[in-house]
Structure formats: C-alpha cells, structure tokens
C-alpha cells in the first residue's frame, strides 16, 4: 500500500480507490465539499463504532428502556421513501470510513483481542467487521438533516472474507476501511479491508465483502436505499463486479444440493469414496471400513449452546450478527483443532447467510463438523438454529463456512450417509470457491 493512501484524511481531494483511500489527482471542488460534509477525515476509534450506531438508530443503552426506544423508532416510519427514485444518488466516497483499532498504541485494548498464544482473536475481528459494515451502510443512506435514521440495516450475507498471506500481530495498530460498492433496491454490497502497521506502513491483511439489507424502522419489511453512482472507471468496475456477484450468488444458490442433484463428476467422487470404504473381506454394501488416515464425518462433530442475553442485542432486540459469527467461528476453530490435532489458522470465510434473526432470550444451538479436507486444509461447516424457551420448535438461522489450515497434513473425512455425502460436496464447492489458497507459513497467526 502506498503511503499517500494513509494520508487520505488530510488530503480531502481526489479519486477514491477502494482499499487505498484517496489518491491525489482530481481538484474537483464538489468532491472536496462532499468530504468536508461527511467528516470522513479522521479514522473513528473502534470503540466508537457501536456508539455511533446506537446514536443513528436511537438504541437504548439499558435493557429496561428498549420498549420505549422501539416506540420512538415507529415514529420514523413516515420518513421512509416510497420509491428509490425519490432518494438522492450517493457516491462510493460518501460511505467511505476508516476505523482504527490501536492495539499498538493503546495496549489496554489488547486483552479483548488476545488468544492464549498471544495471537489475535479472529472472532473479535468478525464482530468489528460486522459493526463497520452496518455503519458504512448508514453513511450511504444518511440524511443530513435527520439525527436518527428511519432505516433498520441488517446483515444478510458475509459473501467472502479472504485473509492475505501476512502475519497479524497483537502489538501493532490495525486499520479498517470500507465503503458501499454496489446497491440494488434495498440491498447494498459493502467492501472492507483490514490493514496492519508493519514498520511505517499499513499493509493489507484481509479483504471482506458483506451484503446488508435495509428494512423499515421496525425491521418488519424492506425499505428503499439511495442509488449509487460510480465516479471513475475503477468504481464502474467495482459496481459491475457487484452486479456479477449478485448473479454468481443466484447461480450458486440455484445449484444448491438442497435443490438439485450433484453433477456427474460429483456423483463419481461420492461413489468412489463409497467403494473405498467397502470391506474387501465381505461382499456387502453394508460393511464399511475406514481407509487408513481417515475419519468418519460424524465423528468430527462438536456442539455448543448459547443463551442469548440482552447484552448482545442490536436495536431491534435481535442478536448482533457479529456475535453470532464470533460464536460460530470459535466452535468451528475448536472443531478444526480437534480434527487436525494442531492449532489451525483461518484462511477464508464464505457465504454466511443470515436467514432468520435471533431474538434476545432464544437458545442458540450451534453444531459444527468437518465436511471436507485436502492436504493441510480443513473445511468446517457450522449450523445454527434457535428455539425459544417456550416452544421446542427449532429453526435454522445461519449456516457458516470456514476454511482452516493446519501445520500438518490432516486426515481425510469420509461421509457415511447420503446426507453426509451432500455435506462433503457442498464443503468441496466452498473450498474450491476460495479465491487465493494461502501457503503454509509458521508466522501466519490468526486464531479464535
Ligand atoms: C447497539 C445498537 C446498534 C444498532 C445497529 C444495528 C446493526 C445490526 C446489524 C446486525 O447485526 S443484524 C443481525 C444479523 N442479521 C439478521 O438477523 C438478518 C436475518 N435475516 C433476515 O431478516 C432476512 O433474511 C433478510 C432481511 C436479510 C432478507 O429477507 P427477505 O429474504 O424477506 O428479503 P427480500 O426478499 O425482501 O429481499 C430484500 C433484498 O435483500 C436481498 N437479499 C436477501 N437475502 C439475501 C442474501 N442472502 N444475499 C444477498 N442478498 C440478499 C434481496 O436480493 C433483496 O435485494 P434488492 O431489494 O436490492 O433486490
């Protein structure tokens, strides 16, 4: 990353290159005005992100006031637009924010982010990314005159998080940046990046793409958001990529194994695995034996339970997406650790779909298993479902996909049933969609 990029906040002019902040160039006074107006100059301290969100949505700071806070939000309903055309277009720069996590300069912050191995807790990073993603969307949709937003913005999807091949130190400052990169009618794609100080320079360590959805003041139905106007060829390319991403997601979902049979190649893979587990001593489809250095998928499972307390609520009295991700990630990490026999490192997160909100007071059941392995890689799937204390009915809220890397080669995982075979193929599809396989490095230190 160029040093000019770090001076983004003091430049107040030029062209937005995502992940690089502003580069010098354009002298357009209109652009300067936008940046003064949006006060995007100094990075926000990580501890202030949630405070800002609380202000924007008018959240109560204590649980006893939450009913009153929701009543007040109902009054904002009349400020919602009836069509997208009514709303002024925004630029990528309008939502651009930088957030500072000063682990180096404020050591008292470290405790919250530290693992026992003196590495960074990735679960905490997931929480920060989620809050930042929501704040970015509120910047895109903000109305200058209004103190509070009539929109309820929720995390719909973590499309992808790729770790770059760099170590993360708990003793150096971290900076996040991001902006809206594509919009539909009610949904927004947000691109975020994370940088860490190495010497005098911030180097990129993570790329993330989330999709957020705008809902009405009470989070009961969809709500329109401002259009987005790309300002340069780079931004046009980002926007086009957002459009393609939407198409890719639709195609991926249409081919889901929950809807369609596996391809011929996938069927062959599963049948060969099945044949590999037949006992050569008995001519029977029933007697199954594991090949050497392999584990049955059902023996890779770990489960946990969370009681969802008000502390983890967002304004809508639902549980924060970031908290759910942290809990799922930590269970997924423990599953990979248990399976591989050594401390694994996260290399990619993808396709976390927030299908249903989790209400405060619910019981959250997380169930994690290894569904695919290759060389040093372990693909873990975590399924979460909720049940209220009153009803025994369980409902799926999320499915999480994590790719870990172990220091040693890991055993193969074998499905025993047809359902497990589908999990295996789904895991393989997710593994193959990882954009940049990371090479094994001993200094690659990102843990739960
Ligand atoms: C302390 C104070 C802080 C206050 C800040 C609060 C911030 C809170 C942020 C969070 O943590 S939210 C908590 C975690 N997320 C959730 O609980 C969301 C749970 N899921 C849902 O509520 C619904 O599934 C969701 C609203 C996301 C979608 O509902 P629908 O499927 O009925 O949506 P619909 O069919 O109306 O589609 C609306 C838009 O979403 C898009 N969409 C829906 N699901 C999607 C998906 N999975 N991926 C991508 N896009 C998706 C869809 O394409 C469409 O886009 P466009 O209008 O632009 O065409």
TrEMBL record:
Any one cellular-component term (Gene Ontology): mitochondrion
Residues in HotDog ACOT-type domain copies: 95-218, 298-410
Domain of life: Eukaryota
PROSITE patterns listed in its UniProt record: HOTDOG_ACOT
GO molecular function: carboxylic ester hydrolase activity; fatty acyl-CoA hydrolase activity
UniProt keyword Cell inner membrane, yes or no: no
Listed InterPro entries: HOTDOG_ACOT, HotDog_dom_sf
GO biological process terms, semicolon-separated: acyl-CoA metabolic process
PANTHER family: ACYL-COA THIOESTERASE, ACYL-COENZYME A THIOESTERASE 9, MITOCHONDRIAL
Family named by the database record: Belongs to the acyl coenzyme A hydrolase family.
Protein name per UniProt: Acyl-coenzyme A thioesterase 9, mitochondrial isoform X1
Gene source species: Ursus maritimus
Lineage: Eukaryota, Metazoa, Chordata, Craniata, Vertebrata
């Amino acid at each position: 990353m160029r040093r000019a990029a770090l001076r983004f906040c003091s430049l107040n002019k030029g062209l937005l290159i995502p992940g690089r902040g502003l580069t010098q160039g354009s002298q357009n006074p209109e652009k300067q005005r936008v940046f003064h107006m949006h006060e995007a100059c100094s990075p926000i301290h990580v501890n202030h992100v949630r405070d800002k969100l609380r202000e924007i949505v008018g959240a109560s700071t204590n649980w006893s006031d939450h009913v009153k806070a929701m009543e007040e939000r109902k009054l904002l309903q009349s400020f919602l637009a009836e069509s997208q055309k009514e709303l002024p277009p925004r630029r990528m720069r309008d939502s651009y924010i930088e957030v500072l996590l000063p682990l180096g300069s404020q050591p008292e912050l470290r405790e919250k982010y530290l693992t026992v191995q003196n590495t960074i807790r990735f679960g905490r990073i997931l929480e920060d990314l989620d809050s930042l993603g929501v704040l970015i969307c509120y910047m895109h949709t903000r109305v200058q005159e209004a103190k509070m937003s009539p929109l309820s913005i929720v995390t719909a999807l973590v499309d992808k998080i790729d770790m770059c091949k760099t170590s993360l130190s708990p003793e150096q400052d971290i900076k996040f940046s991001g902006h809206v990169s594509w919009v539909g009618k009610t949904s927004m794609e947000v691109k975020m990046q994370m940088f860490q100080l190495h010497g005098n320079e911030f180097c990129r360590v993570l790329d993330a793409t989330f999709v957020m959805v705008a809902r009405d003041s009470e989070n009961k139905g969809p709500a329109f958001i401002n259009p987005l106007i790309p300002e340069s060829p780079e931004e046009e390319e980002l926007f086009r990529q957002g459009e393609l991403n939407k198409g890719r997601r639709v195609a991926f979902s249409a081919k889901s194994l929950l809807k369609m049979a596996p391809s011929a190649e996938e069927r062959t893979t599963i049948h060969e695995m099945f044949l590999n587990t037949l006992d050569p001593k008995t001519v029977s489809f029933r007697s199954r034996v594991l090949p050497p250095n392999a584990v049955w998928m059902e023996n890779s499972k770990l489960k946990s339970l969370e009681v969802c307390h008000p502390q983890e609520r967002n304004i809508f009295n639902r549980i924060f997406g970031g908290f759910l991700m942290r809990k799922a990630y930590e269970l997924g990490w423990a599953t990979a650790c248990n399976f591989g026999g050594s401390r694994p490192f996260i290399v990619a997160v993808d396709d976390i779909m927030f299908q249903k909100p989790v209400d405060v007071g619910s019981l959250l059941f997380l169930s994690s298993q290894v569904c695919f392995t290759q060389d040093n890689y372990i693909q873990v799937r975590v399924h979460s479902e909720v049940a209220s204390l009153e009803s025994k009915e369980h409902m799926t809220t999320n499915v999480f996909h994590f790719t870990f890397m172990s220091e040693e080669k890991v055993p193969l995982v074998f499905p025993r049933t047809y359902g497990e075979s589908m999990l295996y193929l789904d895991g393989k599809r997710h593994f193959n969609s990882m954009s940049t396989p990371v090479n094994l490095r001993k200094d690659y230190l990102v843990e739960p």
